[in-house]
Amino acid sequence: MNLRPLRDKVVVKPSDEEEKSSGGIFLPDSAKKKPQEGRVVAVGSGRILENGEIKPLTVKVDDVVVYSKYGGTEVKLEGTDYVLLDEDQIFAIIER
Asked: pTM for the whole thing?
């Protein structure tokens, strides 16, 4: 992937959408929920503080995260969908 985020930006590959409901019914595209979970594939260098120092990001590549449902910018690169987020749009890291 040739997408390098700047500063406090994070690139996330969203998890696959559910194809079936809990009752086993196949869902059309219009009924699928927008994913809120994904895997971090790239991170920026960090947030610049008021004193000029760079604070490293909390998340790292390969973390599985929960992020804002309507946050970020959707990007399609080489046929793959990604979401470009500010680090503060990421709510949690899922530890397994």
From this structure: 0.77
